[in-house]
């Protein structure tokens, strides 16, 4: 049986300056590597939390080419580590729309996978309003990737509310589900941990959630609470707020034990 794999969830409080965000991500990825992580996950929009929804269009890159993608490739290569690159905006054929793209980079710096966020967030509470559909195209295809010893299912933020996506990723079963996110405070306080633990229990696998967490230069607040959850639904580590790195081990023996004692995945009928 394979040995445990150390993973890291990176929490950031990104702002409107791409270069500053990349510098912060670089420092935290180095911390993750120094802590023994073989795979690290950055948060949603690690590269930019803008003042307006349309700000992301100005930094959107062509798939496979651009400074943010080169940065992620270089970071993975430098640390010889799998990097789940949070999200970045990628261009589409429509200049008024981008994709919210989650890219995965292998330790040799090659791109191993690319997932476009399927479910687009919309929320309104008082003066707090969001509608990602104004500037984003939705993706359509679930994606999992073999990252070393781990089969990793990819998702982003609002996807967390749609259990059918995670079920689609479990053929064959994943070892780890990754959730880069930028949850709002009201929705995060109510549902973030609840949903992460539910996805871990339902799919009997580890969940790593890397979040934006704090007060941004734009005035926006995000919930944070980056964490790793084990396949029994236990929270192994959490960073409530502010920049930081959360570590945990994905243990194949723990996965096998949970799936053997309660073989729910084998009992699926739909």
TrEMBL record:
The keyword Hydrolase applies. SUPFAM superfamilies: Carbon-nitrogen hydrolase. GO terms for molecular function: hydrolase activity, acting on carbon-nitrogen (but not peptide) bonds, in linear amides. The keyword Ubl conjugation does not apply. It comes from the Bacteria. Residues 5-252 form the CN hydrolase domain. CDD domains: nit (cd07572). This is Carbon-nitrogen hydrolase family protein.
């Amino acid at each position: 049986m394979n040995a445990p794999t150390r993973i890291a969830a990176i929490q950031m409080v990104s702002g409107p300056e791409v270069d500053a965000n990349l510098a912060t991500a670089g420092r935290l990825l180095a911390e993750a590597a120094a802590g023994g992580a073989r795979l690290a996950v950055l948060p949603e929009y690690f590269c930019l939390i803008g003042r307006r929804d349309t700000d992301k269009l100005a930094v959107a890159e062509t798939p496979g080419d651009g400074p943010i993608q080169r940065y992620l490739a270089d970071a993975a290569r430098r640390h010889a580590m799998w990097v789940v690159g949070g999200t970045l905006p990628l261009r589409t054929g429509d200049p008024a729309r981008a994709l919210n793209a989650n890219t995965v980079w292998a330790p040799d710096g090659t791109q191993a996978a690319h997932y476009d966020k399927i479910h687009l967030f919309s929320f309104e509470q008082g003066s707090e309003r969001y509608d990602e559909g104004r500037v984003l195209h939705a993706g359509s295809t679930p994606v999992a990737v073999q990252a070393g010893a781990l089969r990793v299912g990819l998702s982003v933020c609002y996807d967390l509310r749609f259990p059918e996506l995670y079920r689609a990723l479990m053929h064959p079963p994943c070892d780890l589900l990754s959730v880069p996110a930028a949850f709002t405070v009201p929705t995060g306080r109510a549902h973030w941990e609840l949903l992460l633990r539910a996805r871990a229990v339902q799919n009997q696998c580890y969940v790593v959630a890397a979040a934006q967490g704090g007060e941004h230069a734009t005035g926006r607040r995000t919930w944070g609470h980056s964490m790793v959850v084990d396949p029994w639904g236990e929270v192994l580590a959490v960073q409530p707020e502010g920049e930081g790195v959360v570590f945990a081990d994905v243990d194949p023996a723990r996965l096998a034990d949970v799936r053997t004692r309660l073989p729910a995945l084998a009992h699926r009928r739909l």
